[in-house]
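Supplementary Text 2. Reproducibility record for the structural model of the 208-residue chain.

All settings were left at their defaults, and a single model was retained for analysis rather than an ensemble. We include the record here because the model underlies the residue-level annotations in Supplementary Table 4.
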Amino acid sequence: MRRLILYTVLLTGATLMTTGIATSQTSAVASKPVHKNSVDLGLTYTPEYARIVNQNCSCFWLQGVSGDVSVNFHHGLGVDVALTEGMASNIQPGVNLSKFTFAAGPRYTWDTAKWKHGKIAGHSGRIFLESLGGMAHGYNSVFPAPGGSIVSANSYSIQLGGGADVLLARGFGLRLAELDWVRTALPNASSNTQDDLRFGVGLSYRFK
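Retained model, structure tokens:
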């Protein structure tokens, strides 16, 4: 819970700072090419459409935040590391759920300034695709276990998807949209797998 509050405060502060910078500009800033060893940061609000088991739609929304760091090594090819935390209340009567995921893997980023019509919402931008793997930790909930139940559980995590950034000024950008398929294998007394859809919107920053 404290991590979620901290991420939310950081996102709010960064939003106010970015808005002030953007409004002071009189024209759009051209996109910088994806240079070798450039570093991109992202901070997003990430609602996640989830369900307890895949066989039926006991559906709910996890509300959370995500932070990621991407290092571009060569012509847009790089590695991304993402941390995400979300929580939901009353996924079943009296049962809550919090989930933390860590994932890392390759990301490929296209600089739209190189395209003939390379504009996103009238601005230069970046589009990326990624394939990440890691771990998930579910807690503050109830998970079936031999002989009873437990309040936390761990599993692998797979995250496949991508997104688009609109560039603003001085390295800042807007994470216009991100969409990821997220698979985990937390115990649920059924298939023990979950296939969720995670959405994202927020801010990005590139270190020159």
